[in-house]
């Protein structure tokens, strides 16, 4: 173990910040030196900066400010920016999160520079290579030195792909750690009052390329959301990605449909906690609604988080089936997760990850028994 090794975290989008906060906190408890690289992939302050305050994250040591663009242009900017920062700081380990372009770029840079990496949320698969996130997941897991899995099915996916099991650790879900920590602050009433919401309502979050990039698909999705709004008022915190295309398709303020700017972490989860229904195409929201017991309809043909369907409150729907599915969910009322919650979704994933990283920095290899002790 080198003296005073440095661990860097690469964060680019809302879910990255939420997953990283418990890991950063766990490493800080162990006295490990660390720093955050904010790539600026989410360049809107409401999509990134506010999360540092909400989650108690330290100020980043670098902000690349790459902004938006095509996958190629954004990834190219990330590659050059990250290479400079990694070369400057020479970390002992770089930790990446999830499946965004910042994650892919960091893995590629570190692989070329022979800098070890760890992937938090390894092994999730939708088995749909049309999703850019799926490509990012597969490449990231193939090149990572430590792989932290959030659910049991991820272990089998990694084994099928030939990943050395010694690299893989089932640690639980750090996004749930952040949710547990925030629970005392999740009060829907102030957010509802500020947004002018009275009574029962649904929340919708929509940004996936398959749903918003094609004008015809966007129109079909908007028509489906309008079908939900005929049954219950719908609040849409609108992601910058695809905002104009969705507006062109008719997703604008109208009776029973309220478009608002992106919300901070606590405000958004407070709004979700008070909702009768959530409509989404986001991965993280599927997990958050599972833990909050809020009915969730995911407008996608597949999910890399099937555990939210088998153990949670999530259901996959098409745009055509969305209004009817919403009607049923609203009639059924508040959801409760089916059976036990997913394994190790207990609010302690961050410290588990931190202990594995500490052992790895010391050069210790963890036996299966030692891995089990970490849980």
From TrEMBL:
InterPro entries: UDP_GlcNAc_Epimerase_2_dom, WecB-like
Pfam family, one: Epimerase_2
Keywords: Isomerase
Molecular-function annotations in GO: UDP-N-acetylglucosamine 2-epimerase activity
Keyword Isomerase assigned: yes
Enzyme class: isomerase
The EC number(s) this enzyme carries: 5.1.3.14
All residue ranges annotated as the UDP-N-acetylglucosamine 2-epimerase domain in the record: 32-358
Coiled coil, from the record: none
Similarity annotation: Belongs to the UDP-N-acetylglucosamine 2-epimerase family.
Name of this chain's protein: UDP-N-acetylglucosamine 2-epimerase (Non-hydrolyzing)
Species of provenance: Microbispora catharanthi
